[in-house]
Design brief:
With about 400 residues, the protein is of the alpha+beta class. It contains 9 helices and 20 strands. Strands 13-14-16-15-17-18-19-20 form an 8-stranded mixed beta sheet, sandwiched between helices. Strands 5, 6, 9, 10, 11 and 12 form a 6-stranded antiparallel beta sheet that branches.
Length: about 400
């Protein structure tokens, strides 16, 4: 019975601290910590303690100094006699956190955790669960597929990857689907939304609950370099031109040739986070003949980041304030979101107020959290429920 009890605990992602015999064949297992789903091995790696504190353990007997760096917050680890370093963090907010180990000044990924492409490198990450977010997890519903396909870029003159979510039943059916083009942030790529963002889990669950219509979601890598030297980033209309060309001339034509998607503007949406939110704002709103639905998550172009100030809505999207009636007719959904602890939040609230004061029809929501994935998951979760409704 003891073996069975411990096996059950391990399978649920828990680790037992101690076992007490209650008599009559009953055993009580005391739970000390949880094992994050981002660990490589349930028996090794970071431990999630009470109040969302995390214990990190590193075996580095020859090291002189070891730290854990969680999104810029560094914790000094303490070395034991056996050469194992440990530290327990302050409580972490729920969600997804990139982190790295710093061993004698060298920043490295933790081999005990899964790695993800973020912060412009392969980084370790830890997932802090949040109650009530079952839609972000795999559930007992019909599941779609995420596939990686390759298209030829007219901008880079090279083959480039796309990750595409297709809803349950896509391969068996013949119907055409609306499509969302979803963009990652700076320092990430096409894998971000499908891996860190849990796009498939969110869409599977929403579709199963009939809260969202079945749709295809396309995640492109906007880190595109044109042969003439242009780059896909930048918080300006001019800075968006390289990726705009990539999206309109290569990505969308490939998707519409390869997948069963509806090709009218009302069946297309564009959304993204941070840098991708800026791309969605400029490309989505300035190309209404292509997109009728736009979602902007945690963009910094309104303010809150270096170099962003005095954002002129009318200059950046001509007609938004001077011909608002026409602007509103062009878009079925215009949605903006931001984390409540994000430095961008007040600037975002102010720009939304300016829009609304001038009659712009824009949906807005904020969620607890900083500039991080739990906010963006919630943003997609809400945005998807507005889309493609008659």
């Amino acid at each position: 019975m003891l073996v069975a009890a411990l096996a059950t605990v391990c399978c649920t992602g828990m680790t037992a601290q101690g076992v007490q015999d209650l008599g009559d064949g009953k055993i009580m297992v005391k739970i000390d910590h949880r094992v994050p789903v981002t660990n490589v091995n349930l028996r090794q790696g970071p431990k999630l303690l009470t109040n969302n504190r995390v214990e990190f353990t590193v075996r580095a007997p020859e090291a002189q100094k070891v730290q854990v760096d969680i999104c810029g917050t560094k914790y000094d680890m303490v070395k034991g006699d056996n050469g194992i370093w440990k530290v327990t963090t302050s409580p972490l907010v729920a969600g997804f956190h990139y982190y790295s180990l710093i061993i004698d000044g060298v920043s490295v990924a933790d081999p005990a955790s899964q790695t993800f492409y973020g912060c412009s490198r392969w980084s370790s990450a830890i997932e802090i669960p949040e109650n009530g977010m079952e839609d972000f997890e795999v559930q007992n519903v019909k599941h779609g597929q995420v596939r990686t396909v390759y298209y030829f870029s007219k901008v880079e003159k090279a083959w480039r990857p796309l990750m595409v979510y297709t809803p349950a039943g896509y391969d068996e059916g013949k119907e055409n689907y609306p499509v969302v083009y979803i963009q990652h942030g700076g320092g990430e790529d096409h894998r971000g939304w499908m891996e860190q963002g849990r796009t498939a889990q969110i869409m599977d669950n929403l579709i199963a609950q009939e809260k969202a219509v079945p749709m295809i979601v396309v995640s492109a890598n906007s880190n595109v370099h044109a042969v003439n030297g242009g780059f896909g980033g930048g918080y300006s209309w001019q800075g968006m031109q390289t990726f705009r060309s990539e999206l309109l001339e290569s990505v969308i034509p490939f998707v519409e040739k390869t997948f069963r998607v509806k090709k009218e503007r009302k069946s297309r949406a564009m959304c993204g986070l941070s840098m991708g939110g800026g791309q969605s704002f400029y490309i989505g709103l300035r190309d209404p003949e292509v997109f009728a639905n736009v979602g902007v998550f945690s963009t910094g172009m309104f303010g809150g980041i270096s170099g962003a100030s005095n954002f002129d809505l009318e200059k950046e999207v001509p007609g938004m304030l001077t011909d608002t009636k026409t602007f509103n007719k062009q878009f079925d959904v215009f949605f903006i979101s931001c984390g409540e602890q994000d430095p961008r939040i007040e600037y975002t609230r102010n720009i939304v107020k300016t829009m609304r004061d001038n009659g712009v029809e824009v949906k807005f929501n904020s969620y607890p959290g900083d500039h991080e994935w739990q906010v963006w998951r919630k943003s997609l979760h809400e945005f998807a429920q507005y889309l493609f409704k008659e």
